[in-house]
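pinging the channel bc i need a second pair of eyes. not urgent but kinda urgent?? the chain im working w is below, pasted from the shared doc
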Amino acid sequence: MTDVLFMYYGTPYDEEGILPYYTDIRHGHPPPEPLLEELKARYRQIGKSPLNEITHALARRLEALLRLSYPYYREGLGAPPPPREDLGPRVFVGTKHAEPSIQDAVRAMAEAGVRRAVGLVAAPHYSARSIAEYEERARAALDALGHPFAFKMIPSYAEHPAYLKAQTERVLEGLWRLRDPKRAVVLFSAHSVPLRSVEKDGGVYPKQLAATARGIARLLGLRNYRLVYQSAGRTDEAWLGPDVNEALEALAQEGVKEVLVAAIGFPADHLEVYYDLDYEAQATARRVGVRLVRAPSLNAGLDYAKALAAIVEEAVLSWSS
């Protein structure tokens, strides 16, 4: 049996958790007071990030789907089983910057007797600032425990057909809300990363994002679409662009009246989707005279959970072959 370590970014459960959360993001350095207050203000603006609830619900759905296809009683029953058996693959959840941490999840897996596991990150696209760091934390936790179980990482799933299909359904729902879809522009948005990180990866991150955008566009017959970025860090270094707000301003100058934005780099709704797109980008769109519609996120949708189950099962099969 192969279990799953499902990892995601994490978010504070309440306002008191914002300081330790932000401090962890800054590698143990507490943020300056103005930056801390700015982040608190953003959380107050959106109300509450549902990222934890969405991801844990998705993990339970993923576990249920993996168990549905697991062959029970492979060796037959030699005695009556107990009233309830905990059979089939288990999904353990760990966060990068909140609780339970990736280290906590790996420790729980060892204590539960896991012998083999695949690692899966909610983020679909590989980056040195994303999936690579999740894998580093997981392997460091395994090192600290003396490697209690075998581990294989799923590096990305940017072009998996089931993932593209799930994203396509969300983009289609967004297109239904447009007044004139043929004249609108679709913006596929993802988290920006420093250019030095892109260079370190050999450009893998933007290439995978472009592949996802092309895949969705191909399925829907889209011709007028662009790849944009959001959520760049507050640092002096150069970050990957164009920023979604800059793109909206440029499109307005071109005479575009409607835009659909699909956050393909963010499977679940959370702070950076609500604030950056529903608040900040909407304000930019209103200012420049563009109607902005956002496509729904994947969240804990059953089709997305099925896509993840297929991705895990394929990784297990390739490991076993």
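so The domain at 161-294 is CATH 3.40.50.1400 (Rossmann fold). and DSSP finds eleven helices and eight strands in the chain. — does that match what u expected or am i reading it wrong
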